[in-house]
Amino acid sequence: MISTPTIKKNPDYAPYRNYDWLRESSLEYIERIAHEVWSEYNPTDPGVTILEVLCYALTDLGMRMDMPIQDLLVDQTDGVRSLHRQFHTALEIFPNAPLTFLDYRKLFLQVEGVKNAWLEKVAKPVYVDFKVDNQAQPPKISYHPFDPVERTRSFEMRGFYNVLLEYEDEVYQLRNNARTQRINAIQEEVRRTYHRNRNLGEDLLEIKAVPVQEVVVCGEIELTPNANAHEVNARILQLVQDYLSPSVPFYSLEDLLKENYPTEDIFSGPLYRRNHHRLAQLLGVLNDDAELLAYLDSHGARVTSLLSLPEEWLENAAQYLEEIREAVETATYAFGFVKDEDLEGSELRREIRVSDIMNLLLELEEVKEIRDLYIGLCNHKDDDDEECNCGEIDPDSDPWKICLDGTAQANLCFQRSNFRFYKDFLPLTIDKGRVQKRWEKLEQENTRIRFSSRVADLPLPKGLYREPGVSSPIRNDLPETYGVGPLGVPPVVGEDRVSRQAEAAQLTAYLQFFEQVLATYFCQLGKVSTLLSVDQNATTTYFTKVMEADDLQAVFKPGGIAAVEGNWLPNHRNGKRRHQIVDHLIGRFAERFSDYVYALFDQYDENQDQLILTHKEQFLRDYPGLSARRACAYNYYESSDDYWNTDNVSGLQRRLARLGGFDTADRMDLGGVSYEFYQDANAANENDFRWRFRDEFGKVLFSSTRAYRDTNKALTDLNLAFEQAKIDANIEVQQSNDAWFFIVKDNADRELARRLEVFESEELAVAAKDYVIEYLSDEPLAHEGIYLIEHILLRPALAPVETDDTHAFFSICHDQETDHSKPLDKYSFSVSVILPGWTRRFSNPDYRQFLERLIRMEMPAHILPKICWIGQSAMQEFQTAYQSYLSQIAANPNEQLPAEELANFVEVLERLRTVYWPGTLHDCVDEGGAEEDNPIVLNRTFLGNLQNPDNNAN
Question: Least crowded by CB within 10 Å, which of 197, 661, 740, 777?
Fold first, then answer.
C-alpha cells in the first residue's frame, strides 16, 4: 500500500516551536507577576505586540535548532569536505587490524594471485637441561633434546605461524621459471602484508603452497534435447571445482546493503591493501586542502614512492588535488568486501560427498538425469610434462564419500575426470580439448567478475548551508509606527519629530537587551561546527555578535558597543568548556582520557591546561589508527631505513603515548641532558643529597646550592634550574677573592645552583656560562617516552643446527633444592616495557603506579609485560645496544641475529632493573615526623645511598 504524504492539521510541535503555546504561557506569566500595573492584554497593546514578536523569534530559533545536523555542521565553502573533517567515515572508523584467522585470511585474499589462504599455528619445543655440576653453572638450553633426559624439562615457544597459500589457476598455468618467479612475488607480497599487520608477540615462519589432493569425478548424465554437451561439460567441471576448492567472492558496498547487512558487519575486519602505517598521515589530511598541500610539499618524495604519481601532479598539486585523492584511495583500499560465511565455507575440506556434487549438477537446466556418479583420489605427480598415471579407484573405498585429513586442498583432476553424456539413449561424442578451452574461459570470466568489486565508503550526508547564525533584529518586525524599523520614525510636522525620535531611541535601547540575547543564541548555533571540531586552534566556546543599528551610537555612551562585545562572553569558562566538549567527543568512542595523567606536570608550566587540551585533540584526530591498530607490532620487515627516530612503532606504544601524554610516541633517544643525585659528604645528616648536571663528556655544568632530603623538592628545584639556566639573565657571574664562578637564580632572585669550579678570570667564567646556555638550549631535560621489546623476536635462530648457543637464550634461574625454575618460557607472548625512571612525572611513585596500571589495562590480555623504570646510565647503555639490534634486524629481516650479537643484547636487557628513590627507615618509636624523612615503601623506595642511583634498584 502506497502512503500519501500529508500535512498535519494540528501538528504536535515542541514547546519552543509552538508559537501559540509560547504566547499564552508568556501572557499567563505576565498576568501573575504584573497584574497590579498591567491590565491591557489585547493585541493592540504595544507590550503584547513586542511579546508576540519575541515569541516569533524564539520559534525561528527553535526551528533552526531542529535542522538536520549535517546542515548545522556544514561549512559555507565546502560542505562535503567540512563534514569529513568533523567525522570519521565508516571506512575509517569501523575496520580493524587483523586479530583472528579469518581477519588474516581476508587480508591475504587482497594479494593478486592468491585464491585462498590459511594460517597454521607452529609451536617450537625448547629443552632445558638442569643437570649441572654446581649451582653457579646455568642450565643448558637447546632446540634439541638432551641425553639423558632425567633432569630435562621443556616448553613450547608459541606465537609462530605458517601461511598456506592456494594460488589462482592462472599461476598454475605458468611454466617453469615464469611460475617460480610469480609464486616468489606473491609470497613476498604476502609476507610484507603480514608484517604490516603483525600482532604483538607473534611472528611468521614460512609461506608455502598448500598441498593439493587431486580428486577424480566421473559420471553418466542425460541432457535435455537442446543442450550443448561441450558447454554443459565445461560448466560441470566449473561447478565441481568450485565445490572442491571454492573461490571467495568479493562484494561491493551496494551488494551488501541490498542484502540488509549491518554497516558494522560490512566494514568489520581489515580492509586496507597497502601499507596503512605509511599512508596514515596522508589519509589524515586528505580532506583538508591546505593541510594536504602542505603535506605534499614536505613529503613529496614519500608520496611519489608510495603511489608512483606523475611529477606534474606534485609540481602543480593545487590543480591535481582531486586526482591525488583518487590515487590515494585506489592505492589504499582493497578489492571488495568479504563475508565471514564465505571464508568459513572455503576451509580445507575433510569430506567430499557424492550427494553434494549431484545436487549441484541437478541445478543445471540442461541436466535431465544423473545415471551414475562416482569419485576417487588421484595421486599422480604434479609435473607439466608427465601424463596422469594414477591408479584405478579403490573398490573397497566408500562409493559415496571421501574422507581427507584437512591438511590439503582438494582439486579436480581434469585428465582423469570423464563424463559420458546422452540424449535419450543416444551417446554423445565429446572433444576434451574443446571442453578444456571453454572451462578456462569460464574460469577467466569468473575471476574477472570476482575482482570487479571495489571497497567503497558510506557517503556522509551532504549538508545544505542555511546560515543558521544569521538573524535580523526583532525591531524590524514591529509596526512601522513604532519608528524602530529600517524606515525609522515616520515623517511628522514640528517638534513632535524630535520627541518621536527620542522615544524610538529609548525603545531601541530597551529592545537591545532582548536583541543581544537572541543574537548570541543565533551566533552560538551558527558555530556548532566549530564547537564540535577537533581543530587544535578551536579554543573559543562562546560566540556572540553585537547587533548593529544606525542609531545605536546615540543610545550607548562612547565606546559602549565595544564594551558590550568585549565583556559579554564569560571568557574564564572557555577552557573548561572546551575540555568538556572534547571529553564528550572522546566519550562517544567509549574512551576515557584521564586528567590524572597531567596532574604531575611541571608546576612552572603556565601552558599546562592548553597542553592537556592539545593531547586530547591529537588523540581524537589519530583515533582510527589508535583504536584499529592497538594490538599491532612494529614492522621490522620493512624498516631498513626506518628503525630509529621513527614513528614505525607498535600500535600499543603509540596508544600508550597518547593516553599517557608523553612527549613523543616515536622510537628515539630518550636520554636528554644527563643529571645525577649524589651524597653530600659535608652534610650533617648522611641522608642529605644534592644534584648536578653533566655534559656529554662528563663535565659538571653546575650543582645544587642546597642539600635535600625530600625527593619532590629536589626534583622541583632541578627542573626549575634547568629551565632558568637556558636564559642569560638568570645566570650571574660573581667574584670571590681572586676566583670567578657563576650562579643560577630563579625569577625571585633565589639561588638555585652554582658552578663549583672556579675560574682565574671573568672572561673564562663568562665563556663557561655561555657554553652552559648553548648546551642546554636545544636539549630537553629528558623525553617522556617508551620502548616496547617483544621477546619472541629475541629467539635464537630456529634453523636446525648441530650445536645450540645456550648463551643466546634468556637466562633461567635454577633452584637446586626444589629443582624448580619459573618461568621457563620467557618468549611466548612476553614483552619488556622500558621507561626513563628519572623524569619529573616518571620518578613519582603515584604516577608510576597509575601508568603501570594503564599499561596492563591496555596490553592485550594474553601478553605478559615486564615494566622497568631505569636510570640514565642504564638507559644510555640500553639505547646503544637496542639501536644496534634494530639496525641488524632491519638489514636482514629474513634472518635471526647471529648468536653473539643476540646474546649481547639479551644480556643488556636482563641487567635492567627498576630504580627507586631513597627513603628513611625508622624504628617503632620514631616514625619520622619530619617532612623531609621519606618512609620506606615496598616497591616504591629503596634503602641505601645515592652514590650510584642506577644501582639502587630491585
Answer: 777
